Amino acid sequence: MQMSKTAASLHINLLPHRAAARKRREQACLRLLASGALLGLLLALGAGAVMQLSLERLTQRQEGWRLAMQQSDKVIVAGQVVQRETAALAARQAAITQLQAERHAWVAMLAMLARVLPEGVILHSLHQDGSRLRLQGQAISQEKVSALLLALGQAAPLSAPELLEARVPAHAMTGMGEGAVELTVQLRLSNP
Asked: How confident is the model over 63-77, as pLDDT tens digits?
């Protein structure tokens, strides 16, 4: 019986090639797993490198766009400055044109005033306020003030002559005699 126990405990491998085949399969499986892990690592590194290159190209493109936008903003600002300067020059030119036109109109108005000023009326001052002209002076009588207003109304009806003040001073002015009248007349500029 003892023999049968020892015989039973001894194993004799009658097929040693199976163990060697199993060991080869295990080693092949481990090599396959290692190569798969290595291949996965290489693929991950390659994908990371491709993504990094793509990200760098995208960053370079965005930087180029940012620079182009900054340049276009500078061009737009320069264009706006030019537009403001052009508008200011156009406004100046319009003002100069208007002043030139008004200058001729004022010259015509003063020439007309010199023509129609009746005898016995003396003007002391002329004041321009925008498109209004204020005349201050003296007349020897109120009839001369009326004659001045009628002459202005006939010579330049668009000037709308208006008597603002006509008063007799408390003391008689030298050279004007009694009945002298101080007058203030306002005219509107009208193109002849």
From this structure: 999 999 999 999 999
